[in-house]
Amino acid sequence: VPLLQxxxxxxxxxxxSLASVALRLPVKSLADTMGRALFVGGAASLPVFQGLPKVxxxxxxxxxxxxxxxxxxxxxILETILAERIACDSYRCRVSxxxxxxxxxxxxxxx
Length: 111
Known about the structure:
There is one protein chain. The chain is mainly alpha-helical and about 110 residues long. It has helices at about 10-20, 30-35, 60-90, 95-100, 105-110. The protein has five helices and no strands. The longest helix has about 35 residues, at about 60-90.
């Protein structure tokens, strides 16, 4: 059992970064490419949170927001059902046919 699992892409980026520093290779950084002035100030240069927007609570606002919210909820449910089916197929779930093919159980489980 490995003590630490690191994604291969992260290990590759870390390894090549360490190798370029250790070998003192002439590698351009993002600051060299975009200009150092872009990074002056660090986190202080980020925009300040101004608070939540003042949105009037009305039926018109509810109508506008509800269509987007319903669409996002449906996409989330479909994505979850698809991910469940892919995971179940990949790991050969040992559940009865009824449970594996009943998306209503998954939707109810999502709330």
